[in-house]
């Protein structure tokens, strides 16, 4: 191995250490706040604490679309997330309210979705609820039901796709509401898509190659899992086998920062440029 390669590996490992080391977490939070302020002050983009099911600010989307056109660093990426650690995060903070528990996870989905859009991603995917989660306490299932059935949806210029066996929900209202989100965006541009995986797992759903609701047949560049766990939990097994990069982040899902995301993607880009 030559000196140039050693330097490149050292840089990549240093970035990875900054991303994963808990001591750097306050710095990640500070950088995320500063970057959010920068977007707001200089580009008019306001990353709001809302959820993907609520009404969107049309002015903010116009500004975001303009910013997206000039974004090049991460343009065209397909990125996925295993959203792990939401319950542990709530437990550590003694949050017992059902809606509050799920809200914090949804806030993070919205934040990442907004940044994915402005940075030129082609798609972003979220593994929200696995089939095996139905065996857990019904509180989690009830929270999803109550939230989706009371949600509103307006104004998004991109597509939303729902994957999973929605028939497993005892309430038809859950499936109807989720499919309503998809229906309202079906005629939007394919330039950016948000994929939600709910009541899903790879082994079961990949059997149904002719069923668009179950079979996800797209490539993913990088798959993140929060909470520090290194298992795939039966998600995107075929994609990982086909070359998707798997990255674990020690932060629990609601604590995952945009700083960690952008540094991870920078590391991914540099690795592909230097060693592929």
Shape: globular
Which architecture name does CATH use? 3-Layer(aba) Sandwich
**Helix/strand-derived class?**
alpha/beta
Strand composition percent: 5-15%
Main beta sheet strand tally, sense and closure? 6 strands, parallel
Mean pLDDT: 86
Radius of gyration: 19 Å
Number of domains: 1
- Order of strands, widest sheet: 3-4-2-1-5-6
Percent helix: 40-55%
Pick out the low-confidence regions.
none
Protein name: RER2
GO molecular function: ditrans,polycis-polyprenyl diphosphate synthase [(2E,6E)-farnesyl diphosphate specific] activity
Organism: Enterospora canceri
InterPro entries: UPP_synth-like, UPP_synth-like_sf
What are the key terms here?
10 helices, about 280 residues, alpha/beta
Describe the protein in words.
- One of its GO terms (molecular function) is ditrans,polycis-polyprenyl diphosphate synthase [(2E,6E)-farnesyl diphosphate specific] activity.
- Pfam families: Prenyltransf.
- InterPro entries: UPP_synth-like, UPP_synth-like_sf.
- Keywords: Transferase.
- The protein has one domain: Decaprenyl diphosphate synthase-like (Undecaprenyl pyrophosphate synthetase, 3-Layer(aba) Sandwich), CATH 3.40.1180.10.
- Helix content is 47%, strand content 14%.
- The protein contains 10 helices and 6 strands, in the order H-H-H-E-H-H-E-H-E-H-E-H-E-H-E-H.
- Strand 3 (158-163), helix 7 and strand 4 form a beta-alpha-beta unit.
- The model has no long low-confidence stretch (mean pLDDT 86).
């Amino acid at each position: 191995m030559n000196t140039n390669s050693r330097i490149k590996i050292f840089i990549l490992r240093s970035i990875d250490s900054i991303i994963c080391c808990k001591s750097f977490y306050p710095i990640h939070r500070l950088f995320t706040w500063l970057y959010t302020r920068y977007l707001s002050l200089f580009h008019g983009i306001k990353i709001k604490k809302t959820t993907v099911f609520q009404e969107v600010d049309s002015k903010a989307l116009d500004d975001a679309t303009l910013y997206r056109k000039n974004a090049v660093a991460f343009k065209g990426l397909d990125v996925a997330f295993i959203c792990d650690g939401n319950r542990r995060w709530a437990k550590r903070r003694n949050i017992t309210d059902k809606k509050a528990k799920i809200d914090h996870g949804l806030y993070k989905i919205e934040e990442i979705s907004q940044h994915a859009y402005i940075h030129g991603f082609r798609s972003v995917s979220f593994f929200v609820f696995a089939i095996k989660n139905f065996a857990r306490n019904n509180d989690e299932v009830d929270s999803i039901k109550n939230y989706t059935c009371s949600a509103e949806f307006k104004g998004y210029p991109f597509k939303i796709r729902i994957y999973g066996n929605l028939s497993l929900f005892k309430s038809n209202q859950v499936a109807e509401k989720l499919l309503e989100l998809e229906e309202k965006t079906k005629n939007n541009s394919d330039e950016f898509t948000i994929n939600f995986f709910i009541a899903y797992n790879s082994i079961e759903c990949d059997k149904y190659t002719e069923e668009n609701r179950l079979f996800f047949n797209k490539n993913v560049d990088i798959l993140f899992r929060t909470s520090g766990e290194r298992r795939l939990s039966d998600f995107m097994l075929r994609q990982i086998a086909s070359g998707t990069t798997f990255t674990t982040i020690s932060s629990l899902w609601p604590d995952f920062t945009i700083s960690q995301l952008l540094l991870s993607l920078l590391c991914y880009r540099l690795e592909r440029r230097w060693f592929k």
